[in-house]
Amino acid sequence: xQAKYKIEVAGKSLPVLxxxxxxxxxxxxxxxxDKYLNMDKWNRELLDKYCREYSVGIVGFxxxxxxxxxxxxxxxxxxxxxxxxxxxxxxxNPSSSVLRLTRAGETAWGALxxxxxxxxxxxxxxxxxxxxxxRNTQEYPADSVGQVQLPLTTVLQDRGQLDGIQRVLFGSSLxxxxxxxxxxxxxxxxxxxxxxxxxxxxxxxxIDDIFVGEKGTRLRPDDVRALIATQKIIGGMxxxxxxxxxxxxxxxxxxxxxxNLGDDFLLQNVxxxxxxxxxxxxxxxxxxxxxxxxMAEMQLNFAFAKEHNIPTNSGYSISPHHSGVYPxxxxxxxxxxxxxxxxxxxxxxxxxLRPARLRRGFIHRxxxxxxxxxxxxxxxxMYIDRYPGGRDKLDESIQGGELFQTIVYNPINIFxxxxxxxxxxxxxLYTFQSVIKFLQCWTNLKLASAPPIQLAEMYxxxxxxxxxxxxxxxxxxxxxxxxxxxxxxxxxxxxxLVIGPQKTGxxxxxxxxxxxxxxxxxxxxxxxxxxxxxxxxxxxxxxxxWYMDFFPSETLPNTSSPMPTAVGTPRYMxxxxxxxxxxxxxPKRAHALLPHAKIVTILISPAKRxxxxxxxxxxxxxxxxxxxxxxxxxxxxxxxxxxxKDLRNRCLNPGKYAQHLEHWLAYYPAQQLHIIDGxxxxxxxxxxxxxxxxxLKIQPLLDYSNHLRYDVKKGFYCQAVSEKRNKCLGKSKGRxxxxxxxxxxxxxxxxxxxxxxxxxxxxxxxxxxPIPQWLKDDLSxxx
Length: 783
Known about the structure:
Blueprint: E1 18-19, E2 22-23, E3 27-30, H1 33-37, H2 41-53, E4 57-61, E5 72-73, E6 79-85, E7 87-92, E8 107-111, E9 117-122, E10 127-135, H3 141-144, E11 152-158, E12 167-170, H4 177-190, E13 200-210, H5 221-237, E14 244-247, H6 257-268, E15 274-277, H7 291-307, H8 330-340, E16 344-347, E17 362-364, E18 367-371, E19 373-374, H9 390-398, H10 402-409, E20 412-418, H11 427-442, E21 446-448, H12 452-462, H13 478-482, E22 496-498, H14 506-514, E23 519-521, H15 544-548, E24 572-576, H16 586-593, E25 598-603, H17 606-619, H18 623-627, H19 630-634, H20 642-652, H21 657-665, E26 673-677, H22 678-683, H23 685-696, E27 708-711, E28 716-720, E29 726-727, H24 742-751, H25 753-766, H26 773-782
Parallel strand pairs: 3-4, 4-12, 13-14, 13-20, 13-21, 14-15, 16-18, 19-20, 22-24, 22-25, 23-24, 25-26
Antiparallel strand pairs: 1-2, 5-6, 6-9, 7-8, 7-10, 10-11, 11-12, 17-18, 27-28, 28-29
Helix pairs in contact: 5-6, 5-11, 7-8, 17-20, 21-25, 25-26
């Protein structure tokens, strides 16, 4: 279940509860009910008033305490508790209006976890039990002689008849599996359905490694018969259910005589199952750096399928060990498309294996990648007496534990199993048949199954926000490094980003940085020159391999530098893309891949920057800029032609500096951000570059006073290549424009007043950053 939530520490003051006369929270949960009961009068009245006005319910958990309470009244309620009890045999009230997902009628037999349970006693009609349990007579034998055990209320509903606030109170924590179900129902009930999961659950069980396995671990004819029989039983409980078999044809008939008969019997019943392709020799695709060789391996498996009448049109494939799916190996996606026309795959690795509840999906190269779940059975899990923790541990997962909860929380479940789990003790058959029966006993979930393409389409209808991938750093996850090409290295990724914004001096900074022998930038792009522009726009969808090709691990010597380095010397890599500054998705994407990178930005007067961008577009022949005055552009309404609005936005939006910096600071700590005063970069670049070198911790330091010289003709600093010759930026840089008209200047001063004020506050909050003179001037003129 994916629901937005916010954790607050209960203290002297309440968090902000409303936003523009709308309630911010649908349900309020107290991990410790005492924090709610013992609130000071003022806060309690405020919270209760909020709950009544916005129909917000409260969930509370009685927290364990060393003090044992016997019939103690809860403050301000006609309700009494007994604490620190040991209980057994939990059951649910079939008439409770709270229950929705959870099904009443069964009893969870045996001792309940913990010895610190609380039970509720009440004498008012506003209260109704949701869950009962019995006192553990084995723990209290003296109390049980000749007595009829009355059920004790362990979860209680308050209908709100006393004070207009509905509540659900728990006598123990969520460590009891049944409480996790009831908690979901409490959220749904108290939020009036706003925080509800659908009751529909889709289940697909993949069986990887068909025909793969050592002798003695493979399927025999009886195992195949059991597979077909169990599939029929599960199909009676889960409409549309068929096992999904993934095969590697190279290892067909590599078992004992009886296991080879099992292979044959499986193929005689090929129509009973769904099928998908593994790799021919079960090899890992990320080890291939040649598309032709990778496709040739896939074509062998395709030919095997055709020879044995195995369907080839499922549009689904699984990579052995999930190699190449994430981190994405582009050759795998290309080969899959060309050989198998793959439309769907799944992996347990995105964004990471653990925690499993955070696994997500994405779409790359038109292949839908779904999150894959584990079920506690692995390649070598073949015998119950060798199961880690024994049968009790497996049953715990099935009966309310991890496997059961996985299906409860996820609307779409694709489970990974292996051929070896279906031979020997046939643990997979037992596991899935048992968990489905347990789900039917304890939940009202409607189970069904469907082919992978249908599941993928359903998944992304449910989670459209997951369509775009977020490329993480493969070197930050040991598992990801193992399934990532050995020819790739994170060492070549940039150590810092120059993020812009445009027309603030980023090209000059790029040139000055490139003079340093220990610093190197990306290889130029044929489309965007020195800027890769990866983290914004469509380049991001080309994948990490595309980006890394701009940063070769073996860097050529910097022959243009006044401090040249030898071939193979490690370089301090950076990337400059001036459109990153105000790109909405850029900080999140950059941080996912480069969490330790330094961020460098340059700021000048936002009004001056806007005018400079307009003149830049005019000089480059932009039709709109050459047909509209600057004032017409910046005052264009939202009903104006799209091209005019786009130019207006590119002029105005990047100048909202504080807003964009806050966005970056939501992902990067302040100590990784360096702000350059663009006017100082123009007037005093030597000091600016020395300060930047110290921030970046670049060694050795380059003394820019020997390498930068003011050029009178250009009107700015250039690289001094000899005693009499300077190397300056091209004609398009430092261009002289007509002065901005007064009407536009005044409008922009008013427009940016609040943004500039916010920037001053932000710079003061960040500390150790002087307020630029241009900012003081803009504010004094603006007021």
